[in-house]
Fold this sequence. Notes:
By secondary structure, the protein is mainly beta. It has two helices and 16 strands. Strands 1, 2, 3, 5, 6, 8, 9, 11, 14, 15 and 16 form an eleven-stranded mixed β-sheet that branches. Strands 4-7-10-12-13 form a five-stranded mixed β-sheet, with no helix packed on it. The radius of gyration is 18 Å and the shape is globular.
Amino acid sequence: MHQGRASAPLKLQRAFCQASGHCELPLLHTAGGLVGGDQLSLTVEAKAHSRALITTVAAQKAYGSVGRSRVHPGGRWARQRVEVQLEQGSDLEWLPQELVLYSGALYEQTLEVNLAADAAFLGAEVVRFGRTAAGEGLGPGCWRSALTIQRQHPDGPRWDLVDRLELGDAALTSPHGLGGEPVFGSLVWAAPLALKPAELAGLLALCRSDRNGLPGTMACGPLEQGLIARYRGSSTQAARFWFSRIWARLRAFRALQPPQLPRVWPFQENPWPEAGST
């Protein structure tokens, strides 16, 4: 069950209850993409002991802005801001479909997560820089991301993660950036409880083993109370598969029902071939 409202161009689709008890809520952006100057704002409040999975009906597109207007020849930024508040014992999975940046796109996203001491948050994103199938890169465009996770404790709030990224210009080709690859992915998990060092090490080892057979460069490391994973490569499918397998690992680690692919996702491939999940 959920309560919500949206104004154009955002729309809340029909919710669905997963076997795990998560309320699967798809968001639809009816405009078909973002242009320079567009702004989207979302506020999510997860009440005590609630479970939710929020996703999107389709991939988000950000169209080129640089050099498209005489008034703003340097382009204008399209921006998305998401604020998340998680109350006691709540569990939120934020899993939108991928973002596709057209050549010359300027896109800035902000995700602010505020958690109760025992709340859990899982967030993942996959970004493609340019329509590579058409031989297009990001060109003069740029992508910025600011993710902050703050957890409330009896002695005051503490930062779980402050993650700021900017990819454009030389960072698209630098070995310390994308290294010429067109796809970047990031997954972060803020666990509901502190993990013992041996537990976290074992979980990370399993998540790293889930990379086997997938193209690209993948890395996974610990947070003080959770983990973070990165993907760099040429395949959005590989990034999605790896993150889906980590998603399943985390559900199993917490003794929850295995994840179900959201009904609105158009992908027919099974990211969990060994487990035979659907």
